[in-house]
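Lab meeting notes turned into a lecture example. A postdoc, R.K., suggested we walk through two folding results consecutively so the class can see how the record format repeats. The first protein's sequence and structure tokens come next.
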Amino acid sequence: MTTPVTGVGTSPAVTPTATTSLQRTDQMGKDTFLQLLVAQMRYQDPGNPTSTTEFMSQTATFTQVEKLEEIASQNASLLALQRSLSAGALVGHSVSWTAEDGTTRTGTVSSVRFAGDEPSAVIGGAEVPLGRLTEISLPS
């Protein structure tokens, strides 16, 4: 049996739960791209306007950005569905997990709850986030 490693001080190590999305504020989205395109058109030199091919290239790039955002959204939905299906398959299985106090516990999954971002396995009446599970095995 392994012993959990504690951090500085007396608090036990805590296993963080996994996340499914990441919000980055340092990246430009389609709104920023569209604002730049409109500003470029507004302030272009009337004596030397933007060529049609350059404008079409920029419009195609904008369309690509929109489609990539749509694909990312669909992937997030598929990931959520896959996690739900995987969680449902745990019912009746024996699992081990790291508890809040850093100890390893075992039990049998009686049901799964889908409240919030991450499904939770219900083991002996307690809800355990799937990110805390360390081992899954068939019941004995």
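The second example is placed directly after the first for contrast:
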Amino acid sequence: MKTIVLAGGCFWGVEAYFKGIDGVIDTKVGYANGHTDSPSYEQVKTSTTGHYEAVHVDYDEGIISLKEILDAYWLVVEPTVKDRQGPDVGSQYSTGIFYMDEEDMRDIIASRDEEQKKYAQPIVTVIEPLQCFYDAEAYHQDYLDKNPTGYCHIPLDKFRK
């Protein structure tokens, strides 16, 4: 099993999206790579903690590759937009790819460079090692499973059947 942490706006929809992909074993939402220890949602939503709303994705690389995970990621983010995804505004909604295995960096950069060919503007998605990840509060975990009509910034047609 491998792990990657992905930030792509509001973590509710990003988590639900990745949970529906074959080979994804587990997900959890939380706060990544900020400068505040054990932040709360109330703190993160002020855009002052440096944290990204992110999804910790565990996947079976015998079923799905990192490249396929990243291909799925690029389908649901606006990578040239800083501090916003869809209608959600704030630095916590920026896009980011946080890796734990240094060997993954080459594949992540190659994926970003391939994706860049689709855009005139530069991709601003942060790519860096995972420094920290704090689980979000329990009510955020599996939010759209618990609240099927809840908010999601990802268009429903992007979800895999």
